Amino acid sequence: MDRIYAIVNQKGGVGKTTTTANLAAGVAQLGNKVLAIDLDAQANLSAHYGYVCDASAEAGSMYEVLRDGIPIKEITMEVEDNLFLAPASLLLSAADLELGGVIGRELLLRKAIDSVKDDFDYIFIDCPPSLGLLSLNGLVAASQVIVPVQSEFLALHGVRQLLDTIDQVRSAYNPSLRVGGVLLCLHDSRRRLSKSVAETVREYFGDLVFDIIIRTNVALAEAPARGVSIFRYDARSSGAEDYGKLAQEVCLNDQKKGNIRRQSTP
Length: 266
Ligand SMILES: Nc1ncnc2c1ncn2[C@@H]1O[C@H](COP(=O)(O)OP(=O)(O)OP(=O)(O)O)[C@@H](O)[C@H]1O
Ligand SMILES: [Mg+2]
Prior knowledge:
Rossmann fold; 40% helix; 7 strands; binds adenosine-5'-triphosphate; 266 residues; single chain; binds magnesium ion; alpha/beta; seven-stranded mixed β-sheet; disordered C terminus
């Protein structure tokens, strides 16, 4: 399946979760059955969809999926039409330590997804702000990576390391892994800094950068407090417009067979 996207950047607060939540919802709105996987112990994606999973939750979370091998299906719930969530829990914060000694520890998510990937048209994985074992599992399980970068000073800080990690994952585990796109987030076109960061990112990544830029929009920051995607919170906001267009761009790219535009990292 070529439609498993890991949303990765080890830099914190760049828009990974906002992108996962709203891109997944946008792709679901286009008529696709979508699974959003929360792989971050902060469980922000789960909260964004209105689900808070504490340690005592009976249904379990991605923690039990990875640690105990319980089927991902058992923890999955429908959160919006066509959109399903596999939630995280705070317990995932121990995953690096607890799973560090397990043989095949990098393959745990890929194996878990194997049993459900035919049930969904798209899978989006929200990764934590580090390049530890969880993000590694995300990259090994994915067919494509989306890298959100914030239109701020130091936007490209750490990106070289991320690209090196992607290259290593490609050669060790996942030869067909490719960069699906670099996404400019939190962009304020009135600020000169945002504009110059966007130019620098485009110079560095060229064609890998998505045409659509996600503008800063307060509704995107408010929607999680209501536990819904931007499309349910405020369908007329610029955030809904931007993520709606991104969903279309992602689906269109997937439909184009033999698209080599985004196949290699610089
Ligand atoms: N386009 C936007 N406009 C306004 N606020 C935004 C936008 N994108 C993200 N935010 C807000 O910025 C903060 C960080 O975003 P988000 O949680 O998506 O980043 P992240 O990369 O997932 O962070 P972490 O690394 O901690 O997981 C959140 O409060 C979010 O609501
Ligand atoms: Mg996040």
